[in-house]
Amino acid sequence: MATFGSVWAVVAVAHNLADHDIGQTDHPAAGKAAPTEAEIAECVSPRRGWGSCLRHVAQYHLVMGVTLTLVWVVLSLRMSLPGLAVGIAVLAVTRAFFAVAARLDDCLRLVCWCFSFAAPVSILRSSGVRDSKLSNEVAQLLRRLQWRSKLHSISAPTARK
Description:
The chain is an all-alpha fold.
């Protein structure tokens, strides 16, 4: 239990160092922004910002790994090297997921986008996804990602009066 508490405290401190002080400044943070639709129309790459985003995730976990390793060695915590590596890998994957979600403007959009490939539209509608704005958001996202073959299955329901 002492190891868990120590690691929790170190992760909290390392997060602030990695996310705000060492791992990212204002300039790289601004570079992570996804291009707007108007910028894409002006031939700006839709991949703009991914390099900054991935550099941030790498720097973040480098700081996290170094901090955790130092505390592990100095305090002689009962952890294994594979356990430490798996823990940092889980942090990296979840951090990357939320970085992707942020680039897609909203976690809801990402979930709806993923779900639209995994389930037929009838399941979406039977689950209560009837809001025309949400359907339009999903359709717009699919258009942006050029999944034109999927667009025929997602249509906005007519508004009820």
